[in-house]
Amino acid sequence: METPKPRVAVHKFSSCDGCQLALLNLGEDLLTLAERVELVHFAEAGPLDPDTEVDVAFVEGSVSTPEDIERIQHIRQHSRLLIAIGACATAGGIQALRNGADGAQWIAQIYSHPEAISSLAQSTPIASHVKVDFELWGCPVSGVQMLAVVNSLLLGVAPRDNADKVCTECKRNGYPCVMVSRGIACMGPVTRAGCGALCPGLGRDCYGCYGPAENANTDALAAQFASLGLTPLDIVQRFQSINSQAPVFLAAADKLRMRGDG
Ligand code: SF4
Ligand code: SF4
Ligand code: SF4
Questions:
Q1: Whose CA is nearest to atom 1 of ligand 2?
Q2: Would you say the CB of residue 92 lies under 6 angstroms from ligand 1?
Q3: Atom of ligand 3 nearest to the CA of 198
Q4: How do residues 166-175 score in pLDDT, each as one tens digit?
Q5: CATH classification number, 7-155, choose in 3.10.150.10, 3.40.50.700, 3.20.20.70, 3.30.2310.40
Q6: Distance 163 CA to ligand 2 centre (A)
Q7: Largest Cα span, the chain
Q8: Per residue in 6-51, pLDDT tens?
Q9: What pTM did the predictor assign?
Q10: Ligand 1 proximity of 222 Cβ (cutoff 6 Å)
């Protein structure tokens, strides 16, 4: 008798869909994957069955509405493994910039009918609400990384997490360092690898979209940024960007603020 294929779902919460697109953009590789797993729910690609039991649930997006809280708990109860994908799901995303602001005031200023908006005061990562088995960082994640995770799971091994720094990928690729050679402030020394040092490879700085690397020395980088002429507020804003709720970046910004530096 044929062994049943693992059942996989891809769910969206508050997000821009970019991480789902990264999976769709795999093209032929996605078709090959679809032969090895049963894609039971992936609204962007077609299949719709959000309530069914699955072996693996990929979750894109942050928890930003009261409805999101109920939905993520339901998904957790019906999924053997839950994998958070992208900066929104792992660190609240760009929408978490409202966490330090008066969100209700923003809603009143932006929408003609603010009473129609049901939104939580904070945008939070998936792991703040349910157990997450693995996190893939990035904005967006790369399809190749997602494929590697699925392949590991199909082989029954734990997915690998590359928590090294973007600088290591720069060196491996032979890219000139934009911070050393051109004095451009770069977040690479504290940012998690995985993108292949995409931005420095194009001659620009890394802005930290893959979230904090392991053993990130944020104090040293903040001092380096100051020596390059960034103001304290500039430095706080570097840490409070796409991954603002990542504890390491949050702590770095809080430390600067407590010193009165921004
Ligand atoms: S992590 Fe970035 S690309 Fe992915 S859904 Fe969020 S905003 Fe979009
Ligand atoms: S360009 Fe940025 S990521 Fe690359 S080596 Fe320099 S500091 Fe590190
Ligand atoms: S270099 Fe930095 S900002 Fe650019 S894609 Fe990689 S992690 Fe993101």
A1: 177
A2: no
A3: 1
A4: 999 999 999 9
A5: 3.40.50.700
A6: 15
A7: 68
A8: 999 999 999 999 999 998 998 888 888 888 899 999 998 888 899 9
A9: 0.94
A10: no
